[in-house]
Fold this sequence. Notes:
Blueprint: E1 14-15, E2 21-27, E3 33-36, E4 39-44, H1 60-69, E5 79-84, H2 112-122, E6 127-132, H3 150-168, E7 174-175, H4 185-197, E8 204-210, H5 215-221, H6 223-228, E9 231-235, H7 243-247, E10 251-258, H8 264-281, E11 285-289, E12 308-311, E13 316-318, H9 321-330, E14 338-340, E15 344-345, E16 351-356, E17 362-367, E18 389-395, E19 404-411, E20 420-429, E21 434-439, E22 443-448, E23 470-473, E24 489-492, E25 495-499, E26 509-513, E27 529-533, E28 541-549, E29 556-563, E30 574-581, E31 583-591, E32 597-606, E33 610-618, E34 621-626, E35 629-636, E36 644-649, E37 655-663
Parallel strand pairs: 2-18, 4-5, 4-11, 5-6, 6-7, 7-8, 8-9, 9-10, 10-11
Antiparallel strand pairs: 1-2, 3-14, 12-13, 14-16, 15-16, 16-17, 17-22, 18-21, 19-20, 19-22, 23-37, 24-27, 25-26, 26-37, 27-36, 28-33, 28-37, 29-30, 29-36, 30-31, 31-32, 33-34, 34-35
Helix pairs in contact: 1-2, 3-4, 8-9
Amino acid sequence: MEERSWSALALVLTLSLDGCVCSTYTLSDAAGLGREFDGIGGLSGGGATSRLLVNYAEPYRSQILDFLFKPNFGASLHILKVEIGGDAQTTDGTEPSHMHYENDENYFRGYEWWLMKEAKKRNPNITLVGLPWAFPGWVGHGKNWPYDTPDITAAYVVRWIQGAKQWHDLDIDYVGIWNERNFDINYIKLLRYTLDKSGLERVRIVASDNLWEPIALSLVLDAELSAAVDVIGAHYPGTTTVPDALKSQKKLWSSEDYSTYNDEQGGGCWARILNQNYVNGQMTATIAWNLVASYYKDLPFGRDGLMTAEEPWSGHYVVNSPIWITAHTTQFTKPGWFYLQTVGHLDHGGSYVAMTDGAGNLTVVIETMTRDHSVCIRPPLPPFDVTPQNATFQLKGSFASIRELHLWRSRFNFKTKQPTLFEELRPLKVSGGSFTLNLCEDEVYTVTTVPSGRKGAHPEPPASSPFPKLYKDDFNNRNPPFSEAPNFADQTGVFEYFVNLSASGSHVSTLRQVLTQRPVTWVADADQTISVIGDYQWQNVTVACDVFMETVGKGGVFVAARVDKGGQLVRSAKGVFFWIFSDGTFKVTNDLAGLTVLAEGESGTRANTWYTMSLTVDGNYASGQLNGYTLWKNAVVLGPQNGWAAIGTRSFELAQFDSFSVAA
Length: 664
C-alpha cells in the first residue's frame, strides 16, 4: 500500500465504558482518490468447471444465472473470465477448441459462448475476459510449446475473439497469454500487433496470469512490452504485490483467486481477499476460481465455486455464502468508481475499503474475519487476530454532508453454525459527520449511500438426489443444442455430437471422439481419451454402448465402470476397463493406462463396424458381452470399490458411440 494511503488515518485510541477498544478512522477524498476500481468476477474454465450447468432444466438454470450475474440480486458480478478452450485437460475436464484442426473453425462448441451471452443478457456492462490454458496440437506443430509458432498462436487467439463478435455479438474486453505458464516477450508484442492489425485495438492484454515476477520487472525494463500490456494479472497473490508491479504504473489484478471450498470458512476467506487485495496490494479487480461448482464433486476441487450447481438431473443447487459476501461489494459499486486513499486495516483486526463514484456516492466495506474461520486453501494468508471493537468513521471532504447511510451485514456465527448473510439493517444516522459500528468477530458490513441493494430470492430448488440408477442416451436429443452430450464430462479428448450421413438406421446421430492429435497440454493428459458420467458411489453396474472404431489396425475403444479419478489425476485412473481393438483382440484392464490386465483374447473386431459392448461389475467379479454374447466372464476385480461409468478410446483417434446405457 502506498505510504500516502495511511496519512489521513486518525488513530485515536480510547477505552469505552464497556471495555471495548475504540478507534477512529477518516474517510475523505480531500487529498484525491486512489486507484480506479475494475470489478469483482468469476472464472468459468480451468477447466470444465461449468460443465453441468448447461444441463439444468428451466427455470433452475436461469435462477442459477441470476444469482451469479443479475445486478442487485445476488453476486452481481462485474467480470466474467472464461477459458479459451484448447481440447486438453485443464483441472476438472477438457473444454473444446474453436479450431480442432488448422482448417477447422466452429464457434458453437462448448458452453462458454452461451454463458457469456447469458451474463451479458443480465448485465450488458459486464467485462468479458478470455484466457488460454491449452492449445490444439496443430498450434504447437506437435510440440508442447506454442511460442515456437508465435504467429500461429496469436492468430488462433485473435480468431476466437473475432468469432465471439461475428457469431455471438460478444465484445471481448481483455485477453491473456497462457495460464500459469512462462510468458514469451516476443509473443506478447506480436499478439498486440495482431490485435491492432485485426481492428481489435480496444481489446486489452493481461499478463501473465501467473506470478508478479518476472513480468513486472520485464514491463519496467522494456518500453515496447509495457505499451503492449494493460494489466498485470497475478494468481493467488496472498493480498500482496511487489515493488516492480507498483513501479510499472499498470492496473494490478488478482486475475485468479479464492480457490476455496464454498462453506462458511470459504466465505470468510473471500471476504478478506476482496478487501485486503486492495488494502495490501493495490489490486483493483479480483476474479474467483471458480464461478460455479458445476462439475462432479469427486473431481479435484469439488465445491470450489462461489456457489454449487452439480445436480442437473434433480435441479438442486445451493447459493453458498461467497455469493452474499460478493454482494457486499458488487451491489453497491461499479467498475469506474475509485477507491479512496483512506483505506486500511482496523487497529484490532480486520480491514476496510471505501469507494466513490465521484458524484457524491460512498460505499464502505468492512470485514473482521478471524484466522480460524476464514481459511484460504491457496495461498493461506498470514496469521492475524481480531477482537471486538468500536470503529468510528469520520466523513470529510465531499462526504461531510452525508446524513444517513444504508447498512448491510453478514454475521457468520461459527459457533452456532447459523450465519445471517447479507441482511439489511436499519439505516445509520450520521451525527457530527461520523458514525460508529460495534464490530464483532467474523462479520462483514457494507455502509453506503447507494439504496439499490437487494437479497435476491427464487423459490427453493428441488431437493438433492443422486444420479439416476437407470440412465440412457441415444444422442438424438440435442436440446439445448450444445456440442457435448448431457452429463458426460470429458477428461481427455473431446466427445461431440456427430451426424453420420453415411450411416443408416439407429446410428445417424452419435457421440464422436474427434481429436487425432495430442494437444498442447496444461497438465499431464492421459494418452487415452475418456469421458466419465454418473455417480462416483456406483459399485455394481452394467454399462452398455454401441461403438464404432474408425482407425484400422491400431484403433481401440472401451466402456468402463468404477473409474476412480479424473481431472489432473486422470492418468492414474483405475477401474474396470473393457477394450476392443480393430486388430481383432480385446482386453480387460484394471486401469486406464492398460498396465494391469485382468483378461484378454480374440474378439474378431475390426474398424468401420458397429458393435454392442456390455460390461457388468458385481462385487469382486466382472464380465463382458460383445453383440449379446459373453466374451469373457468372472474376471477378478482388484479394485477400486466404486466410481463413475465411462467411455473412451485407445489413443487420440476418431471413434463413435451410440445407445449408451447404465444400470446401477
